[in-house]
Design a protein that fits this description.
- Its cofactor is Ca(2+).
- By secondary structure, the protein is an alpha+beta fold.
- 43% of the residues lie in helices and 12% in strands.
- Strand 13 and strand 14 form a beta hairpin.
- The radius of gyration is 21 Å and the shape is globular.
Length: 356
């Protein structure tokens, strides 16, 4: 039943790709098949994190349905992205599905950009390390990120700035904190001389994200934190002080624990558990809070769906043995749903049963 539903839904999504470039529009009416772009997206553009975060699911849909159309749709997107000019090797967040050109030169590893990068390295891992194209795109993007966005604060914290048409905005969003885990899981397949460097970078970013938690009164991190005008890993704007049960920091703890087994990642995870219990637990579940810098808690009365699918799952995995959903057998999609790595060797064994 679930397989049929997945295939039915995949089919319903296909009309969104009917654009001059094959880049799907952001919203689709599943009844009529009409699709359009978000009203707030500049000049009717599609968003990098949306059209760039289909790969794992669509390749898996092809696997389930044996219909190549889903893989073709996402490979098409990749071909276009490979072909067009990228400012300093970076991928801006907005692209026109009509012209295939970038609409604004805003680059972020946080919201609007984030999971596009994550899906490049995860596509490579999910393909049992055969998708060389995804691997190449990932390491080139990472190189551009290192050259242009990775910064060191006066206090020695490594962070990822945002890039607005060549001008750096020294702010890091909570959403960008997934990147510690991403750089960590990609470290092993980088050039041999860079592997340790990537693992160190992953640890430094994860440490910075932990600092955004430990420097708040509640020990939960704000939605965005800054590194300018004397600020270090703290939110300076009232509008950035909220925490809505987001998982990204804990996600990086989980990956870094699996990769290094350094006990500090479990200690940091436990701090988060205690803070969630103290500040976010309400009678009927958990709620986001409006200001992480005050002990007078103001709940937003919302339990986001990613709290269950990601925040709690990553905490559970952080404190579980490594053989529960081992990283060599499973890839987590951007909402922490596990997808299997289909081993080419297993498929060969199936074809020649006399071997087993």
């Amino acid at each position: 039943m679930f397989k049929n539903k997945a295939m039915e839904l995949g089919e319903k999504l296909l009309p969104a790709f009917n654009t001059p470039t094959g880049i799907p529009r952001g919203v689709i009416n599943l009844g009529s098949g009409t699709s359009w772009s978000w009203g707030w997206a500049s000049a009717g553009s599609s968003i990098l994190a949306e059209f760039g975060t289909l790969h794992l699911e669509f390749v898996h849909l092809t696997e389930l349905s044996k219909d190549p159309i889903y893989t073709e749709k996402v490979m098409n997107i990749r071909k276009l992205l490979n072909k067009i000019e990228k400012p300093h090797g970076l991928y801006p967040n907005f692209l026109s599905p009509v012209s295939g050109n970038w609409v604004q030169h805003h680059v972020s590893i946080g919201g609007l950009g984030d999971s596009f990068y994550e899906y490049l390295i995860k596509s490579y891992l999910m393909s049992d390390k055969t998708d060389e194209d995804a691997k190449k795109m990932y390491y080139s993007a990472l190189e551009a990120i290192e050259v242009n966005l990775v910064q060191k604060s006066p206090g020695g914290l490594t962070y990822l700035a945002e890039w607005r048409g060549g001008i750096l905005d020294h702010k890091m969003g909570h959403l960008a904190c997934f990147s510690g885990g991403m750089i960590g899981i990609g470290a092993d397949d980088g050039a041999p001389e860079k592997r340790q460097h990537y693992l160190d970078l992953a640890a430094e970013i994860t440490h910075t994200c932990h600092e955004s938690y430990s420097r708040s009164t509640t020990k939960l991190g704000p939605e965005a934190f800054r590194f300018d005008s004397g600020a270090e890993a703290t939110a300076t704007r009232l509008s950035d002080r909220y925490y809505i049960l987001r998982p990204e920091v804990i996600e990086s703890y989980m990956y870094m624990w699996r990769l290094t087994h350094d006990p500090k990642y479990r200690e940091w995870g436990w701090e988060a558990v205690e803070a969630l219990e103290q500040h976010c637990r309400v009678e009927s579940g958990f709620s986001g809070i409006r200001d992480v810098y005050t002990m007078t808690v103001s709940h937003d009365n919302m339990q986001q769906s990613f709290f269950l699918s990601e925040t709690l799952k990553y905490l559970y995995l952080l404190f579980s043995d490594d053989d529960l959903l081992p990283l060599e057998d499973w890839v987590f999609n951007t909402e922490a749903h596990p997808l299997p790595i289909i081993r080419k060797s297993c498929l060969q064994d199936e074809a020649t049963p006399d071997k087993t």
